[in-house]
Amino acid sequence: MHIDDLMARIRRLPWSKRNKLDEMVRALEENPNETASATEQQAASSTALRPVRGLLRDPGPAPSDETIDEARRELWARFPVVKGS
Known about the structure:
The protein is mainly alpha-helical. Helices cover 55% and strands 0% of the residues.
């Protein structure tokens, strides 16, 4: 990526994102040999994962027998047939 392209992308960012980028650059300048900056660690910890427990608690109504049979017919209709065996 060319520096001019990078600068154009930065200029399109809202001020809040520019400030965050400035903090990240300052942290990198202060500790160039650090593997993960404090800002990166903060961003990683603020991204919460959805808990898996209860994800399938209410999957909704089960498909009817007719729906399952129709899906099977569609699947097998497109299944390749090998000739000569």
